[in-house]
Amino acid sequence: MITFFEITAILSLFVLIYIYVGYPVILIFLRYVLPPKKVDKKVISPDVSLLISCFNEERVIREKLENTLALDYPKDKLEIIVISDASTDQTDRIVREYTNKGVSLIRQEKRCGKTSGLNLAVSKIKGNIIIFSDANAMFNHDSIGKMVQNFNDEQIGYVVGEARYADINQTMSFKSENLYWQYEQFIKKNESKIHSVVGGDGAFYAIRRELFECLFDTDISDFVNPLQIILKGYRGVYEPEAICFEESAGDFQHEFQRKIRIVNRSFSGLMRMKSVLNPFNTGLFSFQVISHKLIRWFASVFILTFTVSCFVLALLNFKLYQWNSLLVILLFGCSYIGYLFSGSINVWKIFYLPYYFVLINTASVIGLINSFKGNIQTKWSHIRTKNKKTNNSYHWAQISIHIFIFVLFWFFFKITGTLFGVSHLPYKITYWTTILTIFYIYSGYPVILIFLSKYCRKAVLQKDVIPDVTLLICAYNEEKVIEEKIKNSFMLDYPPEKLKIVIASDGSTDRTNEIVKKHLNGRLALMDYPQRRGKMPVINDTISKLKSEIIVFSDANTMCDKDVIKKLVRNFNDPSIGGVSADVILHNEKTTFGKSESLYYLYERWIQKKESEFSSTIGADGGLYAIRRGLFVPPSSNIILDDFVISMNIATNGYRLIFDKEAIGHEHNTISYKTEFLRKSRVVAGAIQAVMQKEGVPSVKNKKLFFCYISHKFIRWLIPIGLIVLFFTNLQLVILSGELIYLITFVAQLVFYLLAGLDLFIDKNRKIKLILIPFYFCLVNGAALYGIYKGVFKKQSVKWQKFDR
């Protein structure tokens, strides 16, 4: 068995070195050993058909056509055709504006994908040479001339231009992609000199018209088309002087999705054209395509094999492999840091390059798996399409990253403990880290806030002001409380001409709308949305119709003190204030856990007050808060935790979000612990969703806000997982070490959870104070654990649930 893992480790490492280092070195060697493959270039001007594939390219298509029309190539020799794959934006209209300048439009009425469009277009073109291009690829003025001069050589069947990436923001994704592309160009140039460049480039490559064969819709044209030409006995060369510029993928997520699509379709195409892998058919080219593409697509398999083999041998006390395992863990650890800070600009190469390496190899294996399953992606969506919906592959890749890194940490401490003779190190590190984290969240962070609020205090320039205000009340089936809410709103001590009350009904099916209509006047308006869509779409649609300077959000069951509007808006005299959260007092005397909940909310309000004094509080109370209307950033329509994301968007844009303890609302809470469990779980599910969609999440650059966000919310949302880890790690240490401290803490945990469980069996009129806090603590964290599950697996509906009061 040991021999088997040693062999797999060595072979896997050898293959990986060959893929990324060995193959380029062999290409250099072959350049000097084999007779040079020269190209008989000559300035020629054959008839050229330029095919521009596009789908919804209204942002760049005009620039592309202007760029094409300005090329230094005889106008009577250049045919320009735009292929629209059933575009639904203004792309086709813009293209038709250029009809009188010689530009033709071929439109697919049904969206069938790029390859289908090329098949359709090639049957109608006139040129002897076909040049393929994308809508965002801008050519140098002499690029076509440089490209076609290679076709003077009768052995040349296709020519690949040099695409250069551009990104004005210089993101980490761009830098990684650009470095990878320079490496690719080096390989292509050397492949071209010994035989043929492997594959084309959809942004800019050319072929002889007569060599084009009709492609399958599943084929990726710029890879399969060159393979067809190679099988006909022609060569393909790289032309570094035929230059085009195109946008990079923009961010790691789009690059991840693009790599999946490329590998998915390329592998499928290669399997259809697998005769190119036979050296008796294609000679040296078979070696090139196997080395450059096929083996590299499977690199992730060899990485995984090497990692697993090293870990197994390390656990069997092979010192060499223990050190190898630590190096592997270091690589993935740097990659994880790169992932965590992938949205930042100033990140060290040691972090973002490993992340990019892991990312593209993960994308490759997903593309291969999809191909083996027969799921071939025929349609593409360019990086400029705005789509906030998280891609499923990327979503699951994110989850896998977190799980994988924790497994790696365990191996790291296990191997380190073995190397340095520390027994049970992974369990001890996990135990004490979890203990300290929980202590920090509930005690350490509040202590830090005391010092920060005292020595880094930021005052609020309050002054009585009377701006125009809209009180926005979103309602769904609120017939029990809506009339009381309306009367309470009419009694507010604020100039009537300055206060408008808007009730937005999200498809209410009870008497809510009927009751509101009885009170309609110049101050009260009803926005009746007949179809229930959820609170966030209602808010987005309603705010777009409002004109007041300040928006006050309130729940239907939150009753306000008379002076609450004045108290809220006085803070907006300070131009740095973007949002104000009120103090919603919870009246919960009738609940079985009321005193525990009250203590929890006193603790929360205290933290919010201290955060406000230092910087910004993290999130507003959805029951009652106010914002500047001009600072409202519409969240995605599927956002669950609307109050948190709306308020945090203001804070992340550089404005302060504060808590005003004198602006008071009241809410009665008479729900059962079961309903409270569901309500809390919905809040955490919404928070996890917001994190995954990166909405309302502060940048690391905003150090104060980021520190408070991580300490107050993010880590606390994950505490339930920490509690489970702590319990089982503690149990393991009791069994393995038998040390007294671990036994004491384990017994303490058991007693705590038993006390919490007793509450379920005691009559509500005979509750024991001793068990109320353990019970509420477990209720909240149990709900959070369920919320994490619903958030990660997208099980929580965007439509808010009305809980019986």
Describe this structure as you would to a colleague.
- There is one protein chain.
- By secondary structure, the protein is α/β, with parallel strands linked by helices.
- The protein is 52% helix and 14% strand.
- It is built from 26 helices and 16 strands.
- The strands form two sheets. An eight-stranded mixed sheet has the order 3-2-1-4-7-6-8-5.
- Helix 2 links the parallel strand 1 and strand 2 (78-84).
- Helix 15 (425-455) packs across helix 24.
- The longest helix is centred in the N-terminal third of the chain and has 32 residues, at 2-33.
- It starts with a helix and ends in a 13-residue tail after the last helix.
Distance between the termini: 64 Å
Major sheet strand order: 3-2-1-4-7-6-8-5
What value does the average pLDDT take? 90
- Structure class: alpha/beta
The Cα radius of gyration reads: 32 Å
Give the CA-based shape.
Answer: globular
Q: How would you summarize this macromolecular structure in one to three sentences?
A:
By secondary structure, this protein is of the alpha/beta class.
Features:
805 residues, alpha/beta, 8-stranded mixed sheet, globular
Mind sketching the topology for me?
Elements: H1 2-33, E1 48-54, H2 61-69, E2 78-84, H3 91-96, E3 103-107, H4 114-122, E4 129-134, E5 138-139, H5 143-148, E6 156-166, H6 172-194, E7 204-208, H7 221-231, E8 235-247, H8 252-272, H9 279-282, H10 284-297, H11 299-315, H12 319-340, H13 349-372, H14 392-420, H15 425-455, E9 469-475, H16 482-490, E10 499-506, H17 512-518, E11 524-529, H18 535-543, E12 550-554, E13 559-560, H19 564-569, E14 577-587, H20 594-614, E15 624-628, H21 642-652, E16 656-668, H22 673-692, H23 703-717, H24 719-736, H25 740-758, H26 769-792
Parallel strand pairs: 1-2, 1-4, 2-3, 6-8, 9-10, 9-12, 10-11, 14-16
Antiparallel strand pairs: 4-7, 5-8, 6-7, 12-15, 13-16, 14-15
Helix pairs in contact: 1-6, 1-10, 1-11, 8-13, 11-12, 12-13, 12-14, 14-15, 15-20, 15-23, 15-24, 22-26, 24-25, 25-26
